[in-house]
């Protein structure tokens, strides 16, 4: 098995003329680590993933993947090193599971290689590892939301990279399929020796499945550590704008959040009733 690869973001600034998104982010993800990014909508989580995948270029700073500066690599060369599972994907009517997963081989096989019929061993392994090989000849549109997400995960695995980035992989899924996807990611990370970074809104899932949590607020890292270190009532209030309590799971020992009520977006004058 190939050794896992680490990620380093150094002094990252990125934004738009009227709206800065990331403001001086420094973050190192160690090889083989499973890290969860959390924070409110608009805090820069998805942008950070797109920068780490080479889909965006920072205005200032640099992104290193296994010591290589992504700015010096082509888009296809980057895709051979890091795979990004986007939050959503457009429907492709009539496409089968097999053909969708094969799209993950584009960076490795190129346009001419993609014209060849048949699946290479990497595609077959991706189908098998995610447990979708029995659906290989079914149309993707005929699958449930949870099944489609597993197929999209197989497509990302078909890139055969050492780094896997997941942007809200449980969005729109019911609890059963949320747990199914997250448990699959944890298993694949261990079996394949992957470095995994995933954006999760559910702090409870982040605390249970990730070994490290990084919280963003207004484009800056404001908390970084183990779930036990990061998941506190102060984090709920300062980062997620929720008043609540934090306990411990009686069997697993991971932090469990008990949110009570939302906090105002801006400080309220003392003489104002809430």
From TrEMBL:
<keyword id="KW-0547">Nucleotide-binding</keyword>
<dbReference type="InterPro" id="IPR051535">
    <property type="entry name" value="Siderophore_ABC-ATPase"/>
</dbReference>
<dbReference type="GO" id="GO:0005524">
    <property type="term" value="F:ATP binding"/>
</dbReference>
<dbReference type="InterPro" id="IPR003439">
    <property type="entry name" value="ABC_transporter-like_ATP-bd"/>
</dbReference>
<feature type="domain" description="ABC transporter">
    <location>
        <begin position="7"/>
        <end position="243"/>
    </location>
</feature>
<keyword id="KW-0067">ATP-binding</keyword>
<dbReference type="InterPro" id="IPR003593">
    <property type="entry name" value="AAA+_ATPase"/>
</dbReference>
<keyword id="KW-1003">Cell membrane</keyword>
<dbReference type="GO" id="GO:0016887">
    <property type="term" value="F:ATP hydrolysis activity"/>
</dbReference>
<dbReference type="Pfam" id="PF00005">
    <property type="entry name" value="ABC_tran"/>
</dbReference>
<dbReference type="InterPro" id="IPR017871">
    <property type="entry name" value="ABC_transporter-like_CS"/>
</dbReference>
<dbReference type="GO" id="GO:0005886">
    <property type="term" value="C:plasma membrane"/>
</dbReference>
<keyword id="KW-0813">Transport</keyword>
<keyword id="KW-0408">Iron</keyword>
<keyword id="KW-0410">Iron transport</keyword>
<protein>
    <submittedName>
        <fullName>Iron(3+)-hydroxamate import ATP-binding protein FhuC</fullName>
    </submittedName>
</protein>
<dbReference type="GO" id="GO:0006826">
    <property type="term" value="P:iron ion transport"/>
</dbReference>
<keyword id="KW-0406">Ion transport</keyword>
<keyword id="KW-0472">Membrane</keyword>
<dbReference type="InterPro" id="IPR027417">
    <property type="entry name" value="P-loop_NTPase"/>
</dbReference>
